[in-house]
Amino acid sequence: MSNIDLKKLIVPAVAAALVISGVLMIVFADKYRFRAEPKLEKKELGLEVKSTESRKEIHSTLCRDSLPEKLKDAYDTAGKFINESEAESFWLENISKDEFKTAFEAYTADHPEVFWIDTKSSYKYYEMDTSLEIEFCFSMSGDTLETAKKKLDEAVKKAFTYAPEKADDLDAEVFINDYLVNHCKYNEKAEFSHTSYGALVNGEAVCDGYSLAFKLLCDKMGIECSTVEGTADFNDGKDIGHMWNCVKIGGDWYNVDVTWNDISTAKFYAERYFYLNLTDKEIKKDHKFSPLFNSDKFTGDTTFNIFLPECKTDKLKYLDIYCVTISDLSKDDEIIASLIASAKEEQKSCSFVIDSKLDYKETCDKIINDGYINEWIDGANHYCDRSHKIAANTKAYIYGNQNVLTVELNYG
């Protein structure tokens, strides 16, 4: 048996072992190396997709249907004279001024296309015994009014040139929300700011202008919608008169506040949907509903709701559909998939909803301070090409009222 130089065998073996050890360290350090790229699961909502061309306009009379029979007659008469080309006086029998106010409010709530009634002084009245003489105050009339009506019709048609060819009712609602956010700005001093005309023709409105325009476009798309009277807290502790909408999709009602979705200081895309399809419980965090009209208890309150549906499901809350919900920090597939999708489209941000079962502040602290967000970004970068890798200088923003955490994305 020949002599073997053990040193010659041992040294290469040790070297080989060191090389293999190094490879194993690299493999195990990159935990995404043998992990398939995570994909976002499409959320099936069960809503019917329709072509925009096939959608039929609806003329809902939700407020009229909620009135007692006596006031329905006043509603119909008011509608007849509102739609004349010139203001004319007319008489109503056995009706009080407060009752007529209710009928008038019901009509204008059901008919967002009416913009020519003066919003400061809607009508003049004269009471005599059991009779009431009414004359509406038109802001324009005759040929000027007819021309303005055509402008509103043209503005609506123009809006729908941006509509998707096919969409379910949720997609159609999102389109309407986006159109108003993109084409209208809040301006208290603008002409017709309290009307759909101001929002759609002039592109300037306040809350009731936004809300009436939203209802008008929903009506045109065949989506049932109503306006809501109330107040809102604008972060100064004071409740200010406000209007928003309720919309019916998939058989359920939801609150929508397009005015508050149109935030002039908005930094990220998700902010335009903070108030899209909320339950009553959610919107009551900073909104208050005016009382519901009751003919037996009505005292002529300044603002009231004639029709007010109950919004109790969050099934189609848009943020929950648009964003991945973080329920368990150890399960990161959908989180990373969302970051990948955002990076590939070069989005400026990626937003997440923190599950309401978790403590919002504690969870955000862990994500930001315990390195979870850095780990998720590393994971996303593993699957992105060089031009779409998310940079390290990433910031996170928290929105406690919405249970949202938004990650600002930079690249390079």
Report on this model:
It contains 14 helices and 16 strands. The chain has helices at residues 6-29, 62-66, 69-82, 97-110, 142-160, 169-183, 196-202, 207-220, 258-261, 280-283, 318-322, 333-344, 360-369, 372-383, and strands at 50-51, 89-93, 123-128, 131-136, 166-167, 185-186, 204-205, 225-233, 239-249, 252-256, 276-278, 287-289, 324-326, 349-354, 395-399, 404-408. Strands 11-10-9-8-12 form a 5-stranded antiparallel sheet. A 4-stranded mixed sheet has the order 13-14-16-15. Strands 2-4-3 form a 3-stranded antiparallel sheet. The longest helix is centred in the N-terminal third of the chain and has 24 residues, at 6-29. It is elongated, with a radius of gyration of 29 Å. Residues 1-28 have low confidence and may be disordered.
Q: SSE layout and pairings?
A:
Elements: H1 6-29, E1 50-51, H2 62-66, H3 69-82, E2 89-93, H4 97-110, E3 123-128, E4 131-136, H5 142-160, E5 166-167, H6 169-183, E6 185-186, H7 196-202, E7 204-205, H8 207-220, E8 225-233, E9 239-249, E10 252-256, H9 258-261, E11 276-278, H10 280-283, E12 287-289, H11 318-322, E13 324-326, H12 333-344, E14 349-354, H13 360-369, H14 372-383, E15 395-399, E16 404-408
Parallel strand pairs: 6-7, 13-14
Antiparallel strand pairs: 1-5, 2-4, 3-4, 8-9, 8-12, 9-10, 10-11, 14-16, 15-16
Helix pairs in contact: 3-4, 5-7, 6-8, 7-8, 12-14
